[in-house]
Here is the input.
Amino acid sequence: MGKIIDVSRLVKKYNKANTNAVDDITFDVSEGEFFSFLGPNGAGKTTTISILTTTLSKTSGKVSLAGYDLDKNQKEVRKSIGIIFQNPSLDQNLTAEENVRFHAILYGIYPFAPTFGFMSKAYQKKVYELSEILGIQKDIFKPIKTFSGGMKRKLEIMRSLIHKPKILFLDEPTSGLDPLSRKNLWQYLNEVRKSEKTTIFLTTHYLEEAEGADHVFIINKGKIVSSGTPSKIKKELIKNYLLVDSKSKRKLISELKKLKLNFEEKENIMINLRGKNPQKVISSIKTPLNYLDIHNPTLEDAYLEIIENNNHA
Here is the structure.
């Protein structure tokens, strides 16, 4: 698969700022990938997305999206992307379909018509297809002031896909949603991704949402500080460890030293499992245990360690 996003030595410096908001970053995204761009507030995520989506000018660097140079073909770039912002941007006075229709007309994909019935057959078919995938087909002609937060998010996804973008930018797409709505929304996003073959570019503070990404880039203080698949990032940075405790804690510690196990004594004892079989380690401990748990690291564990290490570098 070819590169659908190609960013080389991107820099953004604001007037009077002492440091660059985006500081010489380079990355690429393959067509059809689920790409996650992570970082704390103020790290440069929003600035980068604003540049890629043509709403903010860059200071220097080269950027291409869907084969179009950002400097030379902004109009074509805009036609190639869809955006779901952190804050809803729907017109509350319109129906769901009217919100979608005016968005489609603004992009120049479908010619103007005053009502749904006068729109092209291609547009009508797309509305029915997407509304069914997203589970809002029964509500598509209702005023969106009657919609729940989750339904409005689904409508925003539909609106962002109506012009058949090659890249979908998701900026905190589940912000403000309850856990069930978040789960359902991701189910729909994955269905849309498969059916539309859309590249997804995600920013989120819910790190579990990025676990399913093909690639993850972590930005801090304007610089890329880590990149790779979620499993690669976790494997390189975070150790699997065994949490144990015993009423005979001194005896347990003495035994662990004799077994030459690498461990830390905290509230519980953390035994480093890197390169070791957990079951063999457990069976080698003869001191009676009153607590036992195997900790498998998450992407959030790795992310927090990366950011903390970078902040102290």
User: Anything to note?
Assistant: The chain has two domains: 3-233, 239-296. Residues 111 and 174 are 32 Å apart (CA to CA). The mean pLDDT is 90. The first helix runs from residue 45 to 52.
